[in-house]
Predict the structure.
Amino acid sequence: MTDAAELRRRTQELLASHSSATTDRLDFLRARFDAGLAWVHYPEGLGGLGATRSLQAVVDAELEAAGAPDNDPRRIGIGLGMAAPTILRYGTEEQKRRYLRPLWTGEEVWCQLFSEPGAGSDLAALGTRAVRDGEDWVVNGQKVWTSSAHIARWAILIARTDPDVPKHQGITYFICDMTDPGVEVRPLRQITGEAEFNEVFLTDVRIPDARRLGEVGDGWRVAQTTLMNERVSIGGMRIPREGGMIGPVARTWRERPDLRTHDLHQRLLGLWVEAEVVRLTGERLRQQLAVGQPGPEGSGMKLAFARLNQEISGLEVELHGEEGLLYGDWTLRRPELVDFTGRDAGYRYLRSKGNSIEGGTSEVLLNIVAERVLGLPAEPRTDKDVAWKDLAR
């Protein structure tokens, strides 16, 4: 059994053989992966040592103290938080060895081709089709709200392979090469002025059957692993006290006494306490993850994340008064990472509006919490046993 002392020893060996001061960043990250210090809870040979997930903090602390480079996790968050755990659980050995190393080092960026113009909250209603043609699948359709598609090499993709069965049963999960012919990425400018998201059009895109994850028609079950991990990665991020959205507001309060009022003070205190409760709940959730797969609890965390971000950013704009109405820059940019708390108060206010949509809409997540956490009766569903092709659209 690998313990904390053993991980410290292995980390020091890595630092001794690959000095963070002289080793090329990418070479260091590759060496870290090969030493099993990327994801210590992953199997040996796949970036891990089969250790307890909680021991990752031991490695991270040692490397941070030594000034070692990281893999820029915000830039490759979709790969780390969604693609990797899905590949680990459902991928073949060949797929795991092909994709996990360059994913973790950041050499290959991933995106997520799930949502569609007519299938966002009701994702299982998706209409993108994949038709078998020999050893390939030919894919046609449109995806939307795709973060990082403009810099991604690979995508996790779900498509309908059988329209004659109920919607949840006829879906298959694929890995799509974003450089293949027929893949077109268009910027989707949002309320912040940036084009952080994209539309992706798929026209006769050929995907080898070797890039299928899971069984044909079992894509919805595979996608649940992705979605549960996505909600944890969004709502359960490890942050310090006064990290996240509450940090800038607290700093402004301390630095600008001229902006203070009694009412704003009371509201800020309430939101500060809520933010701290959510932070500590996230820590508890990560400890639960150390002994199992993410469950529906991640949906509750993501719900709290979205609501708090919107309330805190609204308070921040009020706190700034007239200054809060200013907006720094409307220039169309295509950023390489999602930054929920960057730039100015106006940006944070506008960007937070998307938090209750991305990663699962709050309305859907409320249903998940009600049914799977609280055990309440499910909502009536008239389309559950109807073939997808017969659904009203």
The mean pLDDT is 92. Residues 40 and 322 are 49 Å apart (CA to CA). The first strand starts at residue 110 and ends at 113.
